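Here is an idea for our session: we take a single protein and study its fold together. Start from the sequence, derive the backbone structure tokens from it, and show both lines together. Once you have written the record down, we can walk along the chain together:
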Amino acid sequence: TTAQVVAFTTKQLVALVTDNVQVLSTDQVAALTTSQARALTTDGIVALTSSQVYALTTDQVVALSTAQVVAIEVGDLYAFSTSQSTALTTSQVAALTTDQVVVLSTAQVVSLATNRVAALTTGQVFALTSAEVVALTTAQVVAFTTKQLVALVTDNVQVLSTAQAAALTTAQVVALTTDQLVALSEDQVAGLTTSQVRAFTTGEIVALTSSQVYALTTDQVVALSTKQLAALETGDLYAFTTAQALALTTAQVVALTTSQIAALDVDDLAALSTAQVVALTTSQFAALTTDEIVVLTTAQVFSLTTAQIVGLTTYQVPALITSQLAALSTEQVFAFETRDIAALQDIQVIGLTTDAIFALATAAIPALTTAAFAALTTSQLVAFSTSQFVAISTVELVSLSAAQLGAFTTTQNIAITANQTTALTNAGLLSSLQS
């Protein structure tokens, strides 16, 4: 009877041969005192059937030594009820072999308290199956130490749900290896909180793939520190969507390196707000490629500061299209350096408004190439002030046609210099001027 079994001393129980242990009924097994349960030899534990193991009370389970727990056969451990698995102590959990860990059911895994999860060895964490990892609650995921998290194989990192990934603490996020980080899917990355994204080290930022960067939400992009943003590889910047580019704060825009600026997709650059464009430093603006210069909207061009205009390179100026030149304010035109004026092509000059022509510095007039100057319309020529007219080089003046010369006003003609008169006389064009 169960009463007789309970009457066994621990020495008597130990003396039972394994065959006799196996014939104990589940009621007899459940009747064992905690001292008796703890007295069972490892051979006796091995001899227990799955039904007998299932019959163990939670008090008996707690009483088992780590050696006894290790002796439980994997099939018997799988038979554990969730109450029994919940009863396992931290030392018992830590003692489980990797073979035992692998056979735990998802229900048994979920039943483990967070302190039991934290007790798992890195070897045990490494051995977890994908099904077991998927079954973990967010509280259990948070309970992982950084060492345990690092022990997760990349395949198991990939199966984390977006909720599990979003539950990771900032310390856990920082602890992720580059292989683990790269293993995160686009959905997992997009599901991270802004705090987690902001916790990324610059090394982790560099490790992000272009597809992961592409997956970042606009809120996550805004959450990036200037150091993090500057650490993004140029290929990752190119992967930015227009929405991500538009989400950048002016402080973030300023933090971009010149290499990153040059790597921006032209569609992203064209999508930038005027505030973002104005925030570009002169060195950043000078780093824009000609392909990027071409796509600047007229609103973006009109918003440029005089410092940015001055910062234009002689490679960028020829890339400006007529609509962009027409959008320039008189202050912007006046800010053009003579080297930039000299870089203007004839088709570009035609795009300047009469107000823009009038705004040209007198030093800029002789800097125009003869081809560019000869391309000026009569309306543009008439817009010249007398000081600008006087600044026209003799080479430029004689490049004009009779019709262009005839368009000059009387006021302009009165201002003609002796050198200009001589040049026109020698070219046989003086008579083309209005008297």
